[in-house]
């Protein structure tokens, strides 16, 4: 029996729920899913410029594991760009140290125990932590 997968540490969720090609209605698009841990590996290595060992340490996984996660992220992003698919960023096996909420009305991120959205004052906040 394989051991259970360790949750991957994510510093903060992405600011958006995904991306879509310019000028095409969402109803006419297929989509691919980028998991939170794939987003985090991609962010750490390509945006922050960390090497695989440093990224693995931040995500609380081994270097080979972060390499597999990163390769899946690149393949997903490449497929979306080449085929013109939308990218949904959701799901996965992750944990976030702080409580993060996404406003159901304006879709903006809110941190910790705020009772209303800091941008639109809506009280319909949805927790996105996977702890």
Give a description of the structure:
With 131 residues, this protein is of the alpha/beta class. It folds into 2 domains: 67 residues, Arc Repressor Mutant, subunit A (Orthogonal Bundle); 37 residues, Rubrerythrin, domain 2, CATH 2.20.28. The chain has 3 helices and 8 strands. The strands form 3 sheets. It has a 3-stranded mixed beta sheet. α1 packs antiparallel against α2 and α1 crosses α3. It is globular and about 45 Å long. The model has no long low-confidence stretch (mean pLDDT 89).
Structural topology:
Blueprint: E1 8-10, E2 18-19, E3 31-34, H1 36-47, H2 52-59, H3 63-83, E4 86-89, E5 94-96, E6 100-103, E7 109-111, E8 125-127
Parallel strand pairs: 1-5, 3-4
Antiparallel strand pairs: 2-4, 6-7, 6-8
Helix pairs in contact: 1-2, 1-3, 2-3
Total helical elements: 3
CATH topology name of the largest domain, in short, is Arc Repressor Mutant, subunit A
* Approximate strand percentage: 15-25%
Q: What share of the residues lie within helices? A: 25-40%
Structural class: alpha/beta
Order of helices and strands: EEEHHHEEEEE
Indicate the CATH architecture of the largest domain.
Orthogonal Bundle
* Radius of gyration over all CA atoms, rounded: 16 Å
How far apart are the termini? Answer: 24 Å
Q: What's the rounded overall pLDDT mean?
A: 89
Biggest sheet, open or closed, and with what strands and sense? 3 strands, mixed
Count of folded domains = 2
Q: Sum up the overall morphology in one term.
A: globular
The CATH class of the largest domain: Mainly Alpha
């Amino acid at each position: 029996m394989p051991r259970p997968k360790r949750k991957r540490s994510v510093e903060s969720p992405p600011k958006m729920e995904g991306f879509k090609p310019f000028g095409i209605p969402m109803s006419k698009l297929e989509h691919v899913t980028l998991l939170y841990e794939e987003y985090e590996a991609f962010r750490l290595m390509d945006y922050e410029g960390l090497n695989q060992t440093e990224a693995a340490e931040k995500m609380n996984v081994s270097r080979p594991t972060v390499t597999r996660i990163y390769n899946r992220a690149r393949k997903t992003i490449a497929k979306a760009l080449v085929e013109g698919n939308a990218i949904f960023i959701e799901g996965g096996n992750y944990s976030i140290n702080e409580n993060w909420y996404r406003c159901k009305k304006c879709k903006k991120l809110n941190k910790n125990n705020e009772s209303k959205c800091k941008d639109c004052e809506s009280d319909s906040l949805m927790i996105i932590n996977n702890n």
